[in-house]
Design a protein that fits this description.
single chain; mainly alpha; elongated
Length: 245
């Protein structure tokens, strides 16, 4: 996730959300169709419905609520509450964690960041308890993004936590993005030695991944840091590498 702008704007954060969602009507329609299919199948099963069968419904409702969490808050809250009710009924901890994550997303969209953090911390606790590392990474990055706006040291703590988890599950893309996040936080504090260290690590990972656009972005980031510290020869080298791609 890019948080460093060009030299024209010096170093300012590009506000983005790892866990942000925009309303996608096609996706909503597709999810609603999945919900209808689920209900039909459940009726067909009658008395043979498995005990945790409604976890599927809870997951679909959560996915729909995420699509509404940026603009249609009332709808998103209604759906997220349904996720909570179903999850409590089944003892489905993942669903309860999704409820808190969903409410955090809605609060964040309303710019109520203090409340959002409270919900995200509850989601994080449950997701850690059930060992859902990918979900923990998502929540951790979201918390870090909030702190990125006003508290870089705290943001780095959470970005580093996400980095460690990405390393544990051997997610190369996640590791690359984590290096980018930490490096950007240091860069925005003008701590260029630390920023360079993380951007060079990211470059190595991106070279191993082999996606040209990611490699070009890394070259550009490294060039940017050399530019900031006045090492113009090296800055030109890395900018040229990025330009070549």
């Amino acid at each position: 996730m890019k948080r460093i702008l060009t030299l024209l704007t010096f170093i300012l954060p590009i506000i983005g959300t790892i866990n942000g969602y925009g309303q996608d009507q096609k996706k909503i329609d597709s999810l609603n169709n999945e919900l209808k299919k689920f209900e039909v199948k459940k009726k067909e099963l009658k008395n043979k419905v498995p005990a945790m069968y409604d976890t599927t419904k809870a997951n679909i409702l959560y996915a729909i609520s995420r699509e509404y969490s940026i603009s249609k808050f009332d709808t998103a809250i209604l759906l997220t509450n349904q996720v909570l009710a179903l999850s409590k009924q089944m003892g489905y901890k993942k669903g309860i964690g999704n409820y808190y994550q969903g409410m955090g997303n809605i609060s964040k969209s309303k710019n109520n960041l203090e409340q959002a953090l409270e919900y995200y911390q509850k989601a994080l606790k449950i997701r850690e308890e059930i060992g859902d590392k990918k979900a923990v990474i998502s929540t951790t990055n979201t918390i870090a993004n909030i702190y990125f706006n006003n508290d870089y040291p705290k943001a780095i703590v959470y970005f580093e936590k996400a980095l460690k988890l990405n390393e544990e599950i051997s997610d190369s893309i996640g590791i690359s993005d984590s290096y980018d996040n930490v490096g950007s936080a240091y860069a925005n504090q003008a701590n260029y030695p630390e920023a360079l260290k993380y951007f060079l690590k990211r470059l190595k990972v991106n070279q191993d991944i082999g996606i040209k656009s990611r490699i070009a972005n890394s070259y550009n980031d490294v060039g940017f840091i050399y530019d900031q510290i006045g090492n113009y020869p090296d800055a030109i080298i890395y900018y040229q590498l990025a330009l070549n791609i």
